[in-house]
Task: structure prediction
Amino acid sequence: FANARAAAMSEAGDGLFACLLDVPAALVARTYAGEDAFVLEIAGGPWGFDQRERVRLEAGPDGATCVATDAQPDLTLTAAALGAAGGGPLRHVVLAAGADEHTPGALARADALFRTADPPWCTTFF
Result:
């Protein structure tokens, strides 16, 4: 638009939510264009909002490993944010619920690792 104020939202809504029931299995099953390793602490999810799960993810183009750990986390984020990772920049996904960086730069590293060449797209509402 020549004048961005001319645009008006007619409706907004969410079409799909992904709730990761098995975080390690979900992170191992996906693909990664880059390579990195860090400890993620995931808050909320099917095990309860006050519960937390901590995993060590080592990922690269040839595959990934993800196991439970007691190590200090590099990044804490919500299960909802992790479920949306790859659908857009992770830094945008965590705006509502937030994320805690325990290691400087961890959010940017996770953003780069979870980014996909082609964002997911569904052409139908179901």
The first strand starts at residue 36 and ends at 43. The longest helix spans residues 106-114. The CA atoms of residues 34 and 113 lie 6 Å apart.
